C-alpha cells in the first residue's frame, strides 16, 4: 500500500502549494474508517482508495479530487457520514464523496428501462461536478487492474460493464489512455484466448522484422532534425483490443492488418505541427483518406491533433499523430485538464474544455426524450462513435457521429431543414439520403415545401437528434388519421373477446402500457407501432387471442389501398419482420422492397411513387421464397444432411442449383420457402452449425436490382 508520505510527494511533484496537512488528515481518517476491512485479495481495503488517489495524481488533479478518492468509499462502507466528512474536509469534498457513492449504487448494466433511468442519474451527477466521474473512472480502473481476485462470474460482469459503459465514457471525456487500458483489461477477461493470440503474433512479428518501432522513431527524428524542427518522437504498438477490434470490423487476419504501430510527435508550436506534417509526407508516402486535422476542427472534448497514416519501412502502414505539448496534455487527460495543476496553480491550458459547457453539449440532445429506449439510443449514439466534420455551402462546420447521413446533417442544421429534406448534394454530386458522410465533405441539402418526414427515414438517420425529430413528426402528422384507424382496430379486437373498447377500457389499457393517454394508444395502434392484441392483453390478459395466422398472402402487407396487389421484389426478397417500402409500378400494382435494397436508388427522385408499408402483425405461412448461397463439403451424405436440417426447421426447398463443383466442395444456390425473418435466422443458424457447411449467405442479386431499376 502506498504510504501517506509517498502520496503527498506525488501531489507535490505537480502542485508544490498543495494542502499537505489536509491530504494527510484524509489519509489517516480513511485508514481508520476502513480498519478491519479487506479486499478479495486479502489486502487491507484502504489500499484501494489510496491506489485510486495515486491514479488521479497522474492527471495532476486538485486537492479536493485527491481527498475525495481517499474517502470515496467511507460514506457507503463505514460508519462515516456526510456531515462528518463535510465538517472535517469541507462541503466541496463531502459533495464529491456523496456523488461517487450514489454513482457506485447505480446499476448501469441492468435492464434497459432501469439502465436508461440510471444513465439519466449519471448525467445529472456529471452536470453537478465532473470530478465525480473522474474519481469513479479511476476507481473502476484500479478494480479492473486487480480483478483477478474476484470470482470468475463477477469478473465477466465487471468486464462487460467496463467495455460497454466505462471505457466509452473515458474516451468521450478525452481520456484515451484510460479508455485503452480499460478496454484491454476487460478484453483480458472476456476473451483471453483472443488477446493471447494477438500478443503471440506480435512476438513472432518482432522476431521476423526486428524492432520496427525503434528504427522508424530514429528515422523520424533524423528527418525532423534535418528540417530544424525541435520535437519529441514516441512510438508504440497498438493495444491488443484495438487490433482485435480492427480485425473484426474489417474481417481480416493479423497478417493483413497494416497500421498496428502508432507514432506521436510532440512539437513546440502549432506552426511546427504543420511543418512536421510536411516533413513526414515528403519522406513517406501518405495513405489517401487517412488524414484528419483535429487542430483546425477540434473534437468537442477539446482534443486537438493531426492524424495521418503513411507507408513506412517494408510497406508497413504506420499512424502518426502530431500535436503541441499543451494539446498533448488535453489529449492525455481530456476534460480533466480543466482541473490540472502545474507549479501550484490551476493550469492555464488554452485547449482545455470548460466542463460545464461540455456536459451541456453532451446532454442537450437528450431533452424531451421521455421514451426509455429512445433515450438509451441517444446516449449510446453520443457515447460510442467518433465524429466526422462536414461543411455547409457557406463553409460552416457541422460535427456528426461517424456513419451519419445527409439526413442527419440536415437535422443538425435545423429541425425544419431536416423535415423538409427531399435530397442532398455531396461535393456537388446528387447522392441518396442514406449515403455515409466522410470527413471534409461539403453537403448541400435540397428542401421542398410540403415535404414531411417519412417512416423510412428512421432506418436512414443515425443521430439521436434526427431520430427523435422524425418520430415526433411522424406521431404528430399521422396522429388523427392513425387514431381513427386505431379505434376501428381496437373495437374489432375487443369485440373478438366479447368486450367493448369503451373510453374507460382504453384509458386503462394506456395506463397499464405506460402510454400517456387513450388517444396516443389509438394512434400507435393505427400506425402499427403496437398490436391490438397488446391492447387487449393490457386489460384482459387471460382473454388476449394468440396472433392471427395470415393464410391469405394478399392481407400480409399493411398500407396498401383496398384491392391493391403487391409483389415481393426479386432483388431483395423481403420477409415479414423486416423493414419494407413499396414502389408503385404503373399498371402492375406495388413492388415491395427491403428498406436497404439497392434498386431503391433508382426511384429517389420520384417520391410520389413511394409507399410506407409494414408487414401485418401475426404468424405468416412459410410461402416467402429466399435464395441462399452455400458452400458445402463434397462428401457422401452431406447434401442429404443439409436437406434434412432445412426440413427440421419446417422450411421447404423449392429449388436447388449447383453453381460450382470442385473436388473438395460444392457451391449451391437454394430457394427456401420461409414464414418470416426469424424463420430465416433459425434456418441459417442450423446450417452454420453444421461442420460440413463452409459458408451460407443470403443472396441479394445486384443484377436483379439493376433490372428492377431499369424497368422503370
If you had to describe this structure to a student in words, what would you say it looks like?
The protein is 47% helix and 17% strand. Helix 3 crosses helix 9 and helix 8 packs antiparallel against helix 17. The longest helix has 33 residues, at 464-496. Strand 11 and strand 12 (429-431) form a beta hairpin. The protein folds into five domains: 4-190, Hypothetical protein af1432, CATH 1.10.3210.10; 195-346, Beta Polymerase, domain 2 (2-Layer Sandwich); 472-538, no CATH class; 553-615, no CATH class; 624-711, Alpha-Beta Plaits. Strands 1, 2, 3, 4, 5 and 6 form a six-stranded mixed beta sheet that branches. Strands 14-18-16-17-15 form a five-stranded mixed beta sheet, with no helix packed on it. The chain has a four-stranded antiparallel beta sheet with strand order 20-21-19-22, covered by helices on one side. It has 28 helices and 22 strands. The model is unreliable at 110-114 (pLDDT under 50). It has 712 residues and is an alpha+beta fold. It is globular. It starts with a helix and ends with a helix.
When the domains are counted, the total is: 5
CATH fold naming of the largest domain: Hypothetical protein af1432
Determine the mean pLDDT: 80
Which CATH top level class of the largest domain fits?
Answer: Mainly Alpha
Distance from N terminus to C terminus (CA atoms, Å) equals 76 Å
Category by helix and strand content: alpha+beta
Helix content: 40-55%
- Provide the low-confidence segments as ranges: 110-114
Amino acid at each position: 500500500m502506498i504510504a501517506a508520505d509517498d502520496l503527498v510527494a506525488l501531489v507535490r511533484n505537480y502542485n508544490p502549494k498543495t494542502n499537505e496537512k489536509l491530504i494527510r488528515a484524509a489519509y489517516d481518517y480513511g485508514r481508520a474508517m476502513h480498519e478491519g476491512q479487506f479486499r478479495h485479495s486479502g489486502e487491507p481495503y484502504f489500499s484501494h482508495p489510496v491506489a485510486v488517489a495515486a491514479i488521479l495524481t497522474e492527471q495532476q488533479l486538485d486537492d479536493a479530487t485527491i481527498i475525495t478518492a481517499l474517502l470515496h468509499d467511507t460514506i457507503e462502507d463505514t460508519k462515516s457520514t456526510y456531515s462528518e466528512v463535510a465538517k472535517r474536509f469541507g462541503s466541496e469534498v463531502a459533495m464529491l464523496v456523496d456523488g461517487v457513492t450514489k454513482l457506485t449504487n447505480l446499476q448501469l448494466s441492468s435492464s434497459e428501462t432501469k439502465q436508461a433511468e440510471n444513465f439519466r442519474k449519471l448525467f445529472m451527477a456529471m452536470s453537478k461536478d465532473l470530478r465525480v466521474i473522474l474519481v469513479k473512472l479511476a476507481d473502476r480502473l484500479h478494480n479492473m487492474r486487480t480483478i483477478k481476485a474476484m470470482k470468475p462470474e463477477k469478473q465477466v460482469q465487471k468486464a462487460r460493464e467496463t467495455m460497454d459503459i466505462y471505457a466509452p465514457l473515458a474516451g468521450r471525456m478525452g481520456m484515451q489512455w484510460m479508455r485503452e487500458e480499460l478496454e484491454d483489461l476487460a478484453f483480458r477477461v472476456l476473451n483471453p484466448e483472443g488477446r493471447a493470440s494477438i500478443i503471440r503474433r506480435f512476438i513472432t512479428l518482432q522476431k521476423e522484422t526486428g524492432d520496427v518501432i525503434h528504427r522508424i522513431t530514429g528515422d523520424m527524428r533524423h528527418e525532423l532534425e534535418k528540417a530544424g524542427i525541435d520535437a519529441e518522437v514516441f512510438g508504440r504498438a497498438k493495444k491488443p483490443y484495438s487490433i482485435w477490434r480492427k480485425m473484426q470490423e474489417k474481417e481480416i487476419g493479423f497478417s493483413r492488418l497494416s497500421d498496428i504501430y502508432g507514432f506521436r510527435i510532440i512539437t513546440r508550436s502549432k506552426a511546427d505541427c504543420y511543418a512536421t506534417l510536411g516533413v513526414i509526407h515528403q519522406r513517406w508516402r501518405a495513405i489517401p483518406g487517412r488524414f484528419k486535422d483535429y487542430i483546425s476542427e477540434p473534437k468537442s472534448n477539446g482534443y486537438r491533433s493531426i492524424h495521418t497514416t503513411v507507408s513506412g519501412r517494408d510497406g508497413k502502414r504506420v499512424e502518426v499523430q502530431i500535436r503541441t505539448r499543451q494539446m498533448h496534455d488535453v489529449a492525455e487527460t481530456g476534460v480533466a485538464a480543466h482541473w490540472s495543476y502545474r507549479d501550484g496553480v490551476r493550469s492555464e491550458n488554452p485547449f482545455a474544455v470548460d466542463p460545464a459547457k461540455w456536459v451541456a453539449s453532451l446532454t442537450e440532445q437528450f431533452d424531451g426524450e421521455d421514451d426509455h429506449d429512445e433515450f438509451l439510443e441517444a446516449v449510446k449514439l453520443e457515447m460510442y462513435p467518433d465524429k466526422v466534420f462536414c461543411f455547409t455551402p457557406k463553409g460552416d462546420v457541422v460535427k456528426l457521429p461517424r456513419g451519419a447521413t445527409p439526413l442527419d446533417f440536415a437535422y443538425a442544421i435545423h429541425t425544419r431543414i431536416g423535415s423538409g429534406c427531399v435530397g442532398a448534394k455531396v461535393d456537388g454530386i446528387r447522392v441518396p439520403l442514406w449515403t455515409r458522410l466522410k470527413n471534409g465533405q461539403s453537403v448541400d441539402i435540397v428542401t421542398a415545401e410540403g415535404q414531411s418526414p417519412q417512416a423510412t427515414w428512421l432506418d436512414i438517420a443515425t443521430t439521436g437528434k434526427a431520430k427523435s425529430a422524425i418520430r415526433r413528426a411522424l406521431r404528430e402528422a399521422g396522429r388523427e388519421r392513425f387514431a381513427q384507424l386505431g379505434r376501428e382496430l381496437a373495437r374489432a379486437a375487443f369485440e373478438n373477446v366479447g368486450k367493448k373498447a369503451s373510453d374507460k377500457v382504453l384509458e386503462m389499457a394506456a395506463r397499464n402500457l405506460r402510454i400517456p393517454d387513450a388517444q396516443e394508444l389509438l394512434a400507435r395502434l393505427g400506425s402499427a407501432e403496437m398490436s391490438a392484441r397488446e391492447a387487449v392483453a393490457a386489460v384482459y390478459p387471460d382473454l388476449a387471442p394468440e396472433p392471427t395466422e395470415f393464410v391469405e398472402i394478399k392481407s400480409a402487407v399493411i398500407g396498401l389501398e383496398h384491392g391493391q396487389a403487391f409483389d415481393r421484389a426479386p432483388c431483395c426478397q423481403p420477409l415479414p419482420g423486416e423493414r419494407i417500402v413499396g414502389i408503385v409500378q404503373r399498371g402492375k400494382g406495388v413492388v415491395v422492397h427491403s428498406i436497404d435494397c439497392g434498386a431503391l436508388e433508382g426511384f429517389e427522385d420520384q417520391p410520389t411513387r413511394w409507399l410506407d408499408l409494414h408487414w401485418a402483425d401475426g404468424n405468416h405461412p412459410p410461402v416467402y421464397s429466399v435464395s441462399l448461397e452455400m458452400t458445402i463439403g463434397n462428401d457422401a451424405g452431406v447434401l442429404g444432411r443439409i436437406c434434412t436440417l432445412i426440413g427440421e426447421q419446417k422450411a421447404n426447398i423449392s429449388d436447388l442449383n449447383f453453381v460450382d463443383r470442385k473436388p473438395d466442395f460444392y457451391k449451391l444456390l437454394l430457394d427456401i420457402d420461409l414464414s418470416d425473418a426469424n424463420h430465416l435466422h433459425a434456418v441459417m443458424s442450423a446450417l452454420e452449425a453444421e461442420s460440413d457447411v463452409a459458408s451460407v449467405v443470403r443472396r441479394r442479386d445486384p443484377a436483379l436490382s439493376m433490372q428492377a431499376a431499369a424497368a422503370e
